[in-house]
Specification:
By secondary structure, this protein is α/β, with parallel strands linked by helices. It contains seven helices and 17 strands.
């Protein structure tokens, strides 16, 4: 595993790298941890060697870490981005580039543990959706679902792999398993979207990671946008 820490303050880079190494050692995880304190060198490094996890400061002098994450997403969509910053100003914008977490400085071992624990590399117990397909029960990881859609009398689950699964269960019945999962939003009649994969939301629709567009209910747009932003803010607060 390759983990990169980028902050324009050298002391912060060294501290974070030390904390990350200690976290990995505690979990017996073999990881290469590298610190970078220059914005341009960070992007050059990311273009040459793929990183699995990036801890990225948002305010780096005249440069913006959110913009750096947008550039990173062009050639590495699977990298887990964790923003580390002293400001909440860019919270919603940060999660629109599919950030795994958002940690407010000062960073503590507890905050770092929770942030890294949100990435797929350190998750031990994933939540699943239980569905029936051709009389066989399947367990689909919630993290793998982009959105769900009613198609005729069936429900289709579109996965991040590009594949889909169809079940005879209704979306209403499936949603009973998701009522404690605020990341799944009912954005249009017969469609529920995983907010973790939303890159943009406006009155014209929802743009998912990969630029796919979904419709959004015009009558409920204000409510949907409010729920989406509330979910993002909840993710931010969980990093305190």
């Amino acid at each position: 595993m390759r983990i990169v820490v980028c902050d324009d303050e050298t002391a912060e880079v060294e501290l974070l790298c030390s904390m990350v190494r200690a976290f990995c050692e505690e979990r017996d995880v073999d990881a290469e941890v590298r610190g970078i304190s220059d914005y341009k060198r960070f992007l050059e490094d990311m273009a040459k060697v793929r990183a699995d996890i990036v801890l990225l400061d948002i305010c780096m002098g005249t440069h913006n870490g959110v913009e750096a994450a947008r550039v990173l997403r062009r050639f590495n969509e699977e990298c887990a981005v964790i923003f580390v910053t002293s400001s909440r100003e860019y919270a919603v914008e940060a999660f629109e580039v599919s950030a795994a977490h958002y940690v407010v400085k000062p960073v503590t071992p507890q905050k770092l543990q929770e942030a890294l624990g949100r990435t797929r590399f350190f998750q031990t117990q994933k939540k699943h959706l239980h569905i029936t397909v051709d009389y066989t029960e399947l367990r689909v990881p919630l993290d793998d679902i982009l959105y769900l859609e009613t198609v005729g009398r069936k429900t289709r689950l579109y996965l991040k792999s590009g594949a889909f699964v169809e079940t005879g269960m209704t979306l209403a019945r499936i949603s009973e398993q998701l009522w404690e999962e605020p990341r799944f939003l009912s954005c249009y009649r017969g469609i529920m979207v995983n907010a973790d994969y939303v890159q943009a939301l406006d009155e014209e629709g929802i743009i998912l990671k990969g630029r796919q567009r979904l419709p959004v209910s015009g009558k409920r747009f204000g409510e949907i946008r409010g729920l989406y932003h509330e979910y993002l803010i909840r993710k931010v607060r969980s990093g305190n």
